[in-house]
Specification:
InterPro entries: RNA_pol_sigma-70-like, RNA_pol_sigma-70_dom, RNA_pol_sigma70_r2, RNA_pol_sigma70_r4_t2, RNA_pol_sigma_r2, RNA_pol_sigma_r3/r4-like, WH-like_DNA-bd_sf. Belongs to the sigma-70 factor family. ECF subfamily. It holds the Pfam family Sigma70_r4_2. It is elongated, with a radius of gyration of 19 Å. It has ten helices and no strands. About 5% of the residues have low confidence. It is mainly alpha-helical.
Length: about 190
């Protein structure tokens, strides 16, 4: 079996035995997906870069304990989510205070002007960003990372029924936001 056809699980088994080349292969396969996911979760490319590298260090450490109950990509996204949430909790303390924030001028366009300037895909992305975190994460994993409902449940460590409920409410809110912005029809 050559490196291109070797399964992720087989590579994790090799990593568990100390094979650095297997880590590099997994990095090449999953780096972009994990980076994009973390960048969406944190809103920071620098944080995404750091966390993505930490995910692969964690892969090296945890490979011997990988039980294969989920896909490797799902397992790595779960590690990435945990690390992103941990870092965001730590960063909250360093965020700008209310007085400083009040001094920053608001140069944003009105919702109507923004909607007129953007195409439908950009408007939808903005509406997704406005969803509560629990709904935004489910939409992000499903539509931007191609995860199944089961995989999303594994990444978020929640029941499949909860994933479906969150997806239902997220779609409903997105539909309402699109309609309010003048997009009466579904996605073309």
């Amino acid at each position: 079996m050559n490196a291109a056809t070797e399964t992720d699980r087989a590579l994790v088994d090799r990593v568990a035995k100390g094979d650095r080349a297997a880590v590099r292969l997994l990095f090449m396969r999953h780096h972009a997906r994990i980076y994009r996911f973390v960048a969406r979760q944190t809103g920071s490319e620098m944080m995404a870069d750091d966390i993505t590298n930490e995910v692969f260090l964690e892969l090296w450490r945890q490979a011997p304990g990988f039980e294969g109950r989920s896909e490797v990509s799902t397992w790595l996204l779960g590690i990435a989510r945990f690390k992103a949430l941990s870092l965001l909790r730590k960063k909250k303390e360093d965020w700008i205070d209310d007085d400083d924030a009040a001094q920053v001028p608001d140069s944003a366009d009105t919702p109507e002007v923004v909607t007129m300037k953007e195409d439908k895909a950009a408007a939808l992305r903005r509406f997704v960003d406005a969803l509560p975190e629990e709904h935004r994460t489910v939409v992000d994993l499903a539509y931007y990372h191609g995860q199944s409902v089961t995989e999303i449940g594994e990444v978020l460590n929640i029941p499949v029924a909860t994933v479906k409920t969150r997806m239902f409410y997220a779609r409903k809110k997105l539909g309402e936001a699109l309609k309010a912005a003048g997009y009466d029809r579904g996605w073309p």
